Every structure is written in structure tokens, then in C-alpha cells.
Amino acid sequence: MGFIALLCAGAARAHAQGAAWLLVDTRTAVLSVIRDGHVEARFPGISIGRGGVTRLRLRNDDATPLGTFRIAWINDHSVFHRFFGFDYPTPAYVWRAFDHDLIGPRTVRRIFRALRGHRLPPQDTALGGDLGIHGLGDASPWVHRRINWTSGCIALTNAQIDRLAQWVHIGTRVVVR
User: Considering its fold, how many domains does the chain have in total?
Assistant: First the structure.
């Protein structure tokens, strides 16, 4: 099964079963697990990209993209302890970047060719990639508590990401606001 088919199947399963989804509030630095309109768990003290947040993310700007994403892959053996990867760049990001002349038609075609082929969008374009939610790994908990330090991801402590894992699967919806 290809990337998009797997992602769509996961999204359909999540919607049909009333599965949990994640709300990342970048202003309050809290990640919440929501199911049926109720908060099941809260994870305070998250870190985001040192470049803040944006609706028009570019490679190496260290900003966390705002919007709605799906979990596209899970790496339980990441250098960051666990990594829940986003389906970034989404079509909305692609068109927004194209409208602002940040990417050209060749990049648009390349991204949509991957999507049509049920593959993860290229992660090496001007829009960047390899974004998601992860733990600290061996990073400093002291730094994590004091500053936003990631390259655009959302970071939790290792204990928090382990606890969050029970709600996360391929297709889980993530709203970053």
C-alpha cells in the first residue's frame, strides 16, 4: 500500500472510530489530545522551532508550520527518541508557496507526482521537510524547558512522547495553531 493510500485509510479509520486528534497550541506551548470534543490528555511545556511559527515555511528558516497535517510515518528509534512525521508539505502549503513565487512549476509537479503516486512528498525542496512531533533523545531537558530550540518540529520530553504514542498512528490529524 502506498503512502497516500495508507494515510487516507488511517484518516478514514480515525474519523470513523472517533479517534483522537492532536491540537498543538503554539501560544500556550501545550499539546492536547482531543477525542469527541473532550481533552483526554495535555502535554505542557512543548518546544517549537526557534524561528517561531509561519504559514509559509521554507527550508532552514527553523519555523514551525501552522495548519492541519496527518501523521505520515512513525520512527520509534529516532535520534529524538520517537518521531511522528507529518505529511508536509501539504497541497495547501505547495499552492501558497507557488502563489508567492517561492517554488516553481517543476517543484509543484514533483510534489504532486509523489502525492499521486501515493508517496511522501519530497522533503528536499525549498519548502523543507522532515517535520513532526518528537522527543528529546539526548538533547538537554534544561534547554527544552527554557527556549524554543527545534528546526521547525514540535518537541516534548521523552516521557511525554512515550505517553503520547498511545494516541498516535498513521493518519492521526494534527492541528498546529
Answer: 1
Contact 131, 49 (CB under 8 A): no
Q: What is the pLDDT of residues 47-72, one digit of tens each?
A: 999 999 999 999 999 999 999 999 99
- d(CA 150, CA 144) in angstroms, rounded, equals 9
Q: How many residues does the chain have?
A: 177
- Kindly report the CATH number assigned to the domain that includes residue 104: 2.40.440.10
Q: Per the structure block, which three cell numbers stand in for 162?
A: 512515550
Q: Which triple of cell numbers denotes residue 3?
A: 503512502
DSSP code per residue over 64-128: EEPEEEEEEEEEEEETTEEEEEE-PSPHHHHHHHHHTTSS-HHHHHHHHHHHHTT-PPPSSSTT-
